[in-house]
Amino acid sequence: MREFPLEKAFQWFEPGPVVLVSTAHRGKANIMTMSWHMVVEFSPQIACVVSPGNHTFAALRATRECVISIPGADLARTVVDIGNCSGREVDKFAAFGLTALPASSVRAPLIAECLAGLECRVADTRLVGKYSLFVLDGVKAWTNPRRKNRKTFHAVGDGTFVVDGRALNLKKRMTKWPEFI
What we know:
This protein is α+β, with helices and mostly antiparallel strands. It has a single domain (16-180), classed as Electron Transport, Fmn-binding Protein, Chain A (Pnp Oxidase, Chain A, Roll), CATH 2.30.110.10. The chain has helices at 55-63, 76-83, 92-95, 128-131, and strands at 19-25, 28-34, 37-41, 45-49, 65-70, 100-101, 110-111, 116-124, 133-143, 153-155, 161-163. The strands form three sheets. It has a seven-stranded antiparallel beta sheet with strand order 2-1-5-8-9-4-3. This is Flavin reductase. Residues 13-150 form the Flavin reductase like domain. Its cofactor is FMN.
């Protein structure tokens, strides 16, 4: 083993794909790039960190709802560019050629070009003040059957990303929990 810089240790734990978070507030839809999230419960419940400096923070706090969308690896450059500008100044749907679709349970839009979307409502804000951590309950899930390539991409934390690779099917080795099969 070799010592590794503590401030970069998060790179080893980055849990899931880079996602897009859409909100709608004061008549304006916005999109934010996010990689700091985790599944908390199978229901599904998601915890995510949204910095108070982000335009999305105020919208999420005010409306208490959003959509988490999963972009494919083919959208990686667009997703990074979305993260490099602010919704305060830029209409990100127009600027990046993305299509906002109406969600059924929240005012925030789905993103047509993504692989999947999860409509969410804020379930808990007790850790927002201290950690900027929102806990979200998924209320409706969507998938895009037209997207044949289902590869996602994951942040390594230093401006590099990895794309999903070969899948391992170990279902026969898993404990059978009927509610999750």
